Amino acid sequence: MSASNAIQARFESKRFLEGFQRTIVYIVLTIASIAFLFPLLWMLSTSLKVQEQIMAMPPQLIPNPFDWVNYVEAVTAPGFDVPMLLKNTLTYAVLETIGVVISCTLVAYSFARMQWPGRDIFFIATLASMMIPGTVTLVPQFILFKQLGWTGTMLPLIVPGFFGSPFNIFLLRQFFKTIPMELSEAAIVDGANHLTILRYVILPLAKPVLATVTLFEFLYCWTDFMGPLIYLTDDAKFTFSLGLYAFRERWTINYDLMMAAAAIVTLPILVLFFMAQRTFIEGITLTGIKG
Amino acid sequence: MKGTEATSSRFVQVFRDRRNREAILGVIFALPWLIRLFVMDVYPIIAGVYYSFTQYNILQPPKWIGLANYVKLFTTDKLPMLSLYNSAYYALGSVPLSLILALFLAILLNQNIRGRSVFRAIFFIPSVVPAVASAVLWLWLLNPRVGLVNYILTLFGLPRIPWLSSAQWIKPAFILMSLWGIGWTTVIFVAGLQDIPRHLYEAAQIDGAGVLGQFRNITIPLLTPTIFFNLVTGIIGSLQIFGPAFIILAGPTGGPQNAALFYVLYLFQQAFRYFNMGYASAMAVVIFGVILVLTLLVFKSSSVWVYYETEGRK
Fold first, then answer.
1. Tell me: the pLDDT tens digits for B169-219?
2. If you count Cβ atoms within 10 Å of the first and of the last residue's Cβ in chain B, which end, N or C, has fewer?
3. A–B: how many Cβ contacts below 8 A?
4. Are residues A67 and A81 in the same domain?
5. Mean pLDDT in chain A?
6. Cβ contacts of B31-38, under 8 Å, gap ≥ 24
């Protein structure tokens, strides 16, 4: 056989193998997907079952009958005031996210496109601060907020967001650096100052990253447990994570109600995720943190 | 300052002013973050070290007691070291398993198949579920009598396991739970895999390398920066496990024979149930030290096994 024939033969046999390989990949991925999604299906299924059906063996996926009352009971259960929890969770998530987006944009722009003494040292400090374990600052921060009189309110959760957040600063700074300096310089020639450059040159180009930052921050706030646990004492201020935890403490045995409550807390974020999943997943690629 | 350089053009003067202005403006833009960096990172670390040498219950001013907290947590009080062991056990179980599983999934997801973005989204969904909901769900899944996990075990002819009431099985239970949340790690691996240039694989195929050979000589070496990142974040995160345990155990308690008393759980208990701020601060300093040492070890070892594309070939 000539060299080119040999190579061709190799590739052709590879192609058949690839078809077979492909099927195996599909099968494994499908099995794994079922394994990953099944718990959520089970949550939904349990939430719609009557008490007797929950304890039935072997377990059945489809409830019979469908007990929608569970949701009504969960929502009207004392201590699980869904509208209030929703209001609190949204307050926290929306305000903190707005703060983060505004502050981190300014800070990242400064790191990426402005020169000032000590800039690079502080950027390295920013990276270092991302590695500080949360446990280490937990107690001193609490003491600090206590001395400020902020404990028991949402202030410790929301206000720091307006002063930047290291991960998002890093994300935005990396992105801002990829925008060619010529664009800035052209704008300066036209008489722009940094704020106008930021507004009219950088921000329009940064929409995907900003969407990512917004989504990630919102998700973080919605699911945050430890923060509210430490700083929110008045149950009128509870967020969903605390409300669900209180529910769990109270209704441990009533799994049907607990699953209904869990489903209520999970659903909005799942919906958000489905609507924005591209941004979620591609946002991670944008960060370039892997390298 | 400016003003006396008669020979320089006005342009140089303006330029100088602009650079000064930019420097000032730059600092102003960055100021909020610099403030936060100091107030919420630098200051608390220093304050935490200080508090660790005191007895402090917030109501009264801190009282200096020297190394007493450290002596207590290494000798008389058995729980800090036990809880450290528990967290280390969990980390040793969760991190390697998570990395392997995530890498496995990522490789599958990197194949050229249709609908892979759908699969990728599916594996990411559990990471989006709020931690409280997830913990409550697993509480139900691990129910010894009617939970799904034990049911599946019986389908394979295996005995039921008293997951959350057994000192032996409760940590493995948490490790199992952690595997459900590998979405983030998987997606990061996928991103890392996509960075590997295809032509390397094609060249290897022409040279006769099989799938395994390609994996060993191309995929793994070029993936080492991503593995490194996931390893470090995994270690730091898993040693500090708190949320799922708190929710499942219904508070900062330890479970059967304190087998699930993780380090941060015990710290939380000391700080926010008993208001031993000084003692809790000492515990915080200790775990900081542990994490720092481990991270440095991984960093040091990285020169041996992490391959960056910018390095020259041997």
1. 999 999 999 999 999 999 899 988 988 888 888 888 888 877 788 888 888
2. C
3. 281
4. no
5. 87
6. B32/A103, B32/A106, B32/A107, B32/A162, B32/A163, B32/A164, B33/A103, B33/A104, B33/A107, B33/A126, B33/A163, B33/A164, B33/A166, B33/A169, B34/A122, B35/A163, B36/A160, B36/A163, B36/A164, B37/A122, B37/A125, B37/A126, B37/A129
Same domain, A43 and A134: no
Residue A196, H or E segment: helix A194-196
Instruction: Give the nearest chain A residue to B137 (CA atoms).
Output: A43
Interface of B with A in 230-289 (CB under 8 A): 232, 236, 239-240, 242-243, 246-247, 250, 263-264, 267, 271-272, 277, 280-281, 284-285, 287-288
Domains with residue ranges and CATH for chain B: 10-64 (no CATH), 77-305 (1.10.3720.10)
Q: What is residue B55's three-state secondary structure?
A: strand
Residue A13's domain comprises: 3-71
Helix then strand count (H, E) for chain A reads 15, 0
Which chain A positions have a beta carbon within 8 Å of B308's beta carbon? 291
Compare B112 and B99 and report the one with higher pLDDT. Answer: B99
Contact B48 A139 (CB under 8 A): yes
Per residue in A23-50, pLDDT (tens digit) is 888 899 999 999 999 999 999 988 888 8
ipTM: 0.86
Q: Which of B21, B39, B41 to mutate to test the interface with A (most CBs of A within 10 A)?
A: B41
Distance CA B106, CA B185 (A): 9
| Helix, strand, or coil (residue B63) | strand
Question: Is B188 within 8 Å of A36 when comparing Cβ atoms?
Answer: no
For range B219-247, the mean pLDDT = 93
Last residue of a domain, one of A21, A44, A71: A71
